[in-house]
Write a structure and sequence with these properties.
Blueprint (H helix, E strand, L loop, with lengths): L1 E6 L3 H7 L14 E6 L14 E5 L9 E2 L4
Antiparallel strand pairs: 1-2, 1-4, 2-3
Length: 71
């Protein structure tokens, strides 16, 4: 789990928000950002807790306060 500090605005996000992408609203836009890892599952990623990371979520939804992403 990442506490989002910042995320980008890409042209596709504008298409999502104005409805021209074909996706049904409501939707949380954004696919990439930066933040601090606050929770992690698995021994290999425990070392990332408390660290600032950049991330990409192909599912979108990073214009949120918290986001869960796969490693």
């Amino acid at each position: 789990m990442i506490k989002v500090e910042a995320s980008t605005i890409n042209p596709i996000d504008r298409f999502i928000l104005d409805g021209s992408s074909g996706q049904k609203l409501p939707i949380v836009a954004g696919k990439e950002g930066t933040g601090v890892v606050i929770e992690a599952n698995g021994e290999k990623v425990q070392k990332w807790i408390g660290k600032r990371v950049t991330f990409l979520s192909m599912k979108g939804g990073v214009w949120a306060e918290y986001v869960a992403v796969d490693t």
